[in-house]
Prior knowledge:
Blueprint: E1 16-17, E2 41-45, H1 78-90, E3 95-99, H2 109-117, E4 128-133, H3 138-148, E5 152-156, H4 162-169, H5 175-188, E6 194-199, H6 208-215, E7 221-226, H7 244-252, E8 257-259, E9 270-274, E10 280-284, E11 297-300, E12 305-307, E13 316-317, H8 318-323, H9 328-340, H10 346-350, H11 357-362, H12 368-371
Parallel strand pairs: 1-13, 2-3, 2-11, 3-4, 4-5, 5-6, 6-7, 7-10
Antiparallel strand pairs: 8-9, 9-10, 11-12, 12-13
Helix pairs in contact: 1-2, 1-9, 2-3, 3-5
The structure holds iron/sulfur cluster (SF4).
Amino acid sequence: MAERVIPLHPHRPAPQALHVPAQALVPGASLADQLGRPLRDLRISVTDRCNFRCSYCMPKEVFDKDYPYLPQSALLSFEEITRVAQQFVQLGVRKIRLTGGEPLLRKNIEILIEQLAQLRTPDGQPLDLTLTTNGSLLARKAQALKDAGLQRVTVSLDGLDDAVFRRMNDVDFPVAEVLAGIEAAQAAGLGPIKVNMVVKRGTNEHEILPMARHFHGSGQVLRFIEYMDVGATNGWRMNEVMPSAEVVRTISAEMPLLPMEAAAPGETAERWAYADGGGEVGFISSVTQAFCGDCNRARLSTEGQLYLCLFASQGHDLRTLLRGGASDAELAAAIAHVWQGRSDRYSQLRSQLPADASSATSGRRVEMSYIGG
Ligand code: SF4
């Protein structure tokens, strides 16, 4: 097993300073990056902390008690997050996903959700406001999240067997409590609920069929995620990736699947349906079927750095502008300027890189627990 590299601040590469471009934004002008992709989806990380230690995201031996987590003062306040989000909405964002770390660990997150739920698109429409959680606090919080204005949740669950679940998240947390959280979210009306399972060959692939059987006919949408070389600490190897095509075959052998149309441009999951009407299953295949072509996602770190790709190695410092007295128009112009210069497509390029290139470049990639999945 290759020795794990522990970089100094693996999740905090020094950001690029953001400048307000001289040319003001043309109101209503459509915004596209270098590959013609619009800005539609903003993922906001509200904490870099988590109560799980999933080996593919926050391995325990790196993210231990001495790890330099961000001090409270470094985090954007709810008012700052909402102000920045408003500029993104002006620029075309229609969906906001709250992430982390584990977003439900951020104290009073309902207050932030209330603020974001007030935002409207230029034509007065509400946003699609959603959140990704490990489900550990969901049973307690589901109703309050709904009352605050959250529309949907996505819950991460990497197996039904407690021992396997423990091997994936490296903490002693019972699957039953996550399932209770999913039920509470369903009861609170936070559906359609999506359940994300990361498949890591050699660790949990034998949970694929039990998970498919469990969520078949439940109304919840199970999605299988290929294990990714995110960040610099998870020791990723290609031979631990189980391609989605193989997962489709595994399920179809028992419960035949039929391909479905994509729901919206830029969607990450490839959709399939059970032939027997048992509902939908999704496959997020960043390694074997890259979807960078219509990637319309930006990411805001918990301390106000703008990232243009999950595999980026540098962010853009929005917080300094924000706390430096920039006007809303200046903030929007700076964000637009960065987006227009975007040409990220790491997953597309990964497949053209030599096999070991991923580990060669990993030292510089930002951590997923810092910018959200
Ligand atoms: S690799 Fe980057 S550009 Fe490609 S889909 Fe993922 S986030 Fe988007």
